Amino acid sequence: MEFDKAKERVDYLISEINKHNYNYYVLDAPTISDYEFDQLIKELIELEGKYPDLLREDSPSQRVGGLASDSFASVTHAIPMLSLSNSFNDNDLLDFDKRIRAVLKDQVEYVVEYKIDGLSVSLEYENGLFARGATRGDGFTGEDITNNLRTIRSIPLRLNRPEDLIVRGEVFMKKHDFADLNRKRQEEGLPLFANPRNAAAGSLRQLDPKVTASRPLDIFIFNLQDIKGRFIGSHSDGLNMLAELGLKVNNLLIKTNSIQAVIDTCREWNTKRYELDFDIDGLVIKVDSLEARSVLGNTSKSPRWATAFKFPAEQKLSRIEDIVIQVGRTGILTPTAILKPTLVAGSIISRASLHNEDYINSKDIRIGDTVVIQKAGDIIPELVEVVIEKRTGNEQSFSFPTQCPACGSKVMRIEGEAAVRCTDNSCPAQLKRLVEHFVSRNAMDIDGLGPAIITQLVDRGIIADAADLYYLELSDMLKLDRMGPKLASNILAAIENSKGRGLDRLLNALGIRLVGERASRILAERFIDLDRLIGASKDQLTAIDEIGDKMADSITAFFKEKDNLALIEKLRSAGLDFTYKTSGQAIDQVFSQMTFVLTGSLQKLKRDQAKAIIEERGGKVSGSVSKKTDYVLAGDKAGSKLDRAKELNIKIITEEDFMKMIGDIDTEE
User: Fold this and answer.
1) Are strands 280-287 and 254-256 parallel, antiparallel or unpaired?
2) How does pLDDT run across 377-390, given as a tens digit for each residue?
């Protein structure tokens, strides 16, 4: 394909992908299948790889996350991000209205919006391109999290018009996405997030943007902070304009001049909030007119023209009818309370995790107890406390089992840990969870092998470990319920295709305790071959960034277990790829521990070439300038990054300077 035709195709693909992203993530109305969307992304990435000059900063392919950083740079907000005063009842709202009308008389119009329970951020656009994003911080100074925010697909990298503006939004996680994330973390033996807000905040402040990119974050824009060259008369007009620009605005906007209507709306949504797939902890009431806002002004902490009505937490009484034990893929025994079915926050709650033995003992939880329950983050059933005064004397203390309830093997608790584990790696309950993890999307990605089929394979003795999947025959599959020849053949083909996934995916699939997707990739990149990793010492492992003592101990212990080594040999015999695909020869690490920022157009080097050269030589490339930046490589038409470098007295180098630093290598392809 000629360059001009490739450019035309890339422009078309970016436009189409952005349109479909907007339909899916903003309008919640997709018009093509996931497969069709993935094909568009694939074609774009292939063209950008073949023609690097066509790679744009606003390309959808750039949402995967950049390099990890050591810390976040500080950002001073051009417009302070103030907090809101709180209202908790009708009288508080009436008092708020009296204060407003004392100044504005009867010329008052309110807007009522959701109070999203997430993390407040500011977004800056320059000439329509997303330039910078920051946390609220203390309202005056926040943290630069631009690279992390770029991974959120509901944030457009380019607006529909070339505007210069600053907006404020709330990053959040939908309830069903939060539940999926916690379920995966529980399977991996990782600490659970308490609620969607904590999950969103923790995901957004990851030093590695790739971790953020792996988390299902979303955003609502709820305020226009500043815009150059335009007059906006009201808050509602501003939100309408932002929606036209392609931003995802807060999707509740009620306008009224009656405080009673505001009160009625707050009462209505106190119940209706449970119908939403995201958390709101209240409603926000604002004066709509921007001129009126300027008259009302601000206190040192909050605007006088707005208040947040906070919903009360809904808690109910229930009764513990039993406590049962579930066995996870790492052998962890998790106690679960079986509750008298109780309606809480819009749904029936009949089970709640009791986490571990220490949790039960600390709260003195007994079978038969009356307990206070709620939904953590309006989604995860949670036991708040035991109502001691309702005890009758018939309650039964719960003793943690000394044997696994699934296989009868001895259980043990490692010193310093709260988890109790089954010691038998062949435990059927543990095996089912292990195989489910092995075939999951981020591991070996074997399509069609769901929990129901895996349960049958294990219960009928057809497989005894994950490696046995690669030895299945059509006759084995046809023994299963509801399994026809076509489905069986498709599953066997998917199993065969998974053999070439590579070392990083295989390591994740093995389910080594404390080793997740990112650690698997780091280990694969470092050791290249599984046998090298098997023979690695603890010192070799801890010498790698992000591999600590506990993870190293877990890795070495895993590869000392005879059963694990036998599993690996079965996988080897089945023909799985034990290597990590990489290329290139050893290069002097002249940029080790150095951080570069690239800005402007380079003449001799393409930007992606410069980035690759820096990374090959041990350096890092950041998307924003901070005090920890070592060099800013500036080309023609360098923008705000160059100005920021001058402010911080960061060393600025030209392309010629850079070529001298690397020995003026040949840049021709």
Assistant:
1) unpaired
2) 556 788 989 999 99
Taking the C-alpha atoms of residue 543 and residue 47, their distance in angstroms, rounded to an integer, is 38
133 φψ region: left (φ > 0), alpha (ψ -120 to 50), beta (else) = beta
If you search the block for the tokens 């707050």, which residue do you land on? Answer: 266
Topology (CATH level 3) of domain 428-500: DNA polymerase; domain 1 (1.10.150)
> 52 with 609: CB under 8 angstroms?
yes
Q: Which two tokens stand for residue 97?
A: 């209205």
| Residue 82 near residue 302 (C-beta atoms within 8 A) | yes
Angstrom distance (rounded) from CA 384 to CA 341? 16
Strand partners, 380: 376
Cα separations in angstroms, 268 against 263, 311, 321, 628: 9, 11, 34, 50
Long-range Cβ contacts of 636-643 (<8 Å, 24+ apart): 636/600, 636/601, 636/602, 636/603, 637/600, 637/601, 638/599, 638/600, 639/126, 639/599, 639/600, 640/126, 640/131, 641/597, 641/599, 642/599, 642/600
Residue where the block lists tokens 């570069």: 596
Ranges in the chain annotated CATH 1.10.287.610: 3-64
Q: What is the DSSP string of 259-302?
A: HHHHHHHHHHHHHHGGGSSS-EEEEEEEESBHHHHHHH-B-SSS
595-662: which CATH topology? Answer: Rossmann fold (3.40.50)
Q: When comparing pLDDT for 195 and 101, which is higher?
A: 101
Q: Please state, in angstroms and rounded to a whole number, the distance separating the CA atoms of residues 408 and 565.
A: 24
What are the pLDDT digits (tens) for 51-104?
888 888 778 877 655 555 556 888 888 888 888 888 989 999 999 999 999 999
Answer whether residue 668 shows pLDDT above 70: no
Among the four given CATH numbers 2.30.30.100, 3.40.30.10, 1.10.287.610, 2.30.300.10, the one describing domain 3-64 = 1.10.287.610
CATH class of 76-310: alpha beta
Chain segment 327-358, per-residue pLDDT in tens: 887 788 999 999 999 887 667 889 999 988 99
CB burial class (10 A; 0-12, 13-18, 19+) of residue 487? middle
Least confident of 283-287, 336-340, 381-385, 454-458: 381-385
Closest to 596 (Cα-Cα) out of 661, 529, 499, 545 = 661
Helices (H), 601-639: 607-616
**Regarding predicted confidence, which is higher, 119 or 660?**
119
CATH 2.60.40.420 applies to domain 503-573: no
Q: For the full predicted model, state whether its pTM sits above 0.90.
A: no
Q: How sure is the predictor about 582, in pLDDT bands with cuts at 50, 70 and 90? A: low
Q: 25 to each of 20, 574, 616, how far by Cα in Å?
A: 8, 41, 36
Q: Could you tell me the sign of the dihedral formed by the alpha carbons of 432, 437, 443, 446, in that order?
A: positive
CA 396 to chain CA mean position, Å? 41
Name the one residue in this structure whose structure tokens are 């996405």. 177
Q: Which residues are catalytic?
A: 115
Q: Please tell us whether the domain made up of 316-397 is placed in CATH 2.40.50.140.
A: yes
- Alpha helices by DSSP H, listed for 385-502, are 428-438, 451-459, 474-477, 485-497
